[in-house]
């Protein structure tokens, strides 16, 4: 297979959908005096698993198109403005009841609201596929809601290139539904919690041998295992088990590490790296990511490459 994306006459050879939303992060919140406003700092940004993957790809010099599912509201306009501000190519589909929104607070953790999909924009998705004929079609953070599944099917069913699926744990735990969806994908990207949910095993029992059932569905499966590293197996007999990369810095934020892994893996493949090298580089990139704040504060491709082969 020809992995060289740079010779392909496609504006966006990688399409990623559909998770993107405005996000408010609250810092330095303290208990106010009676009758006083709550003191603290607020930062407004854009987030979502698909956005995180796209940002990693863009950081690596690739050309991804973010396909986002939003509503017909002011939050959709805000999302568009934030994406333009970050120079992220995007196609926003007004298919939800409203645009998703998230808030991250120091004491309460993350609160998010994701309205359901009420219509499927087959025409726009089909048009984007036909126009770009991408070599990667990626669906991230897929939930078990039937409308979400139908939306994902639009991007995965017609395979111009390699179809990549990243399902959520509550979807993969539904074995029948997962079997139906996984059949659309060429590559599966999971974390060990998601893998264990399907296999019905403990986290510590997730290993290369245990993951063999996933090859019934897809050509390749990659499972990230937090501090235990990552696993890769494919139908060609490739089996890889790499420890997590530790650069001596304390962990700050693990959120987005899996998205960083996926983005850097695809970026390395885009640049012509063989699968073992792409896998090693993605492991290092995600190891660096967890030592940095924010979900999109990822290393550069060159930084990860230099650490991988230092």
Would you write up a description of this structure?
- The protein has a single domain (14-19, 48-94, 121-306), classed as UDP-N-acetylmuramoyl-L-alanine:D-glutamate ligase (3-Layer(aba) Sandwich).
- The protein is 33% helix and 24% strand.
- The relative contact order is 0.13.
- The longest helix is centred in the last third of the chain and has 15 residues, at 275-289.
- It is α/β, with parallel strands linked by helices and 310 residues long.
- The chain has a 9-stranded mixed beta sheet, with helices on both faces.
Task: Give the helix/strand layout.
Blueprint: E1 14-18, E2 21-27, E3 41-47, H1 49-59, E4 64-70, H2 74-85, E5 90-94, E6 101-105, E7 109-113, H3 122-132, E8 136-142, H4 146-156, E9 162-167, H5 169-172, H6 175-182, E10 187-191, H7 192-199, E11 220-224, E12 230-234, E13 239-242, H8 257-270, H9 275-289, H10 301-308
Parallel strand pairs: 1-4, 1-8, 2-6, 4-5, 8-9, 9-10, 10-11
Antiparallel strand pairs: 2-3, 6-7, 11-12, 12-13
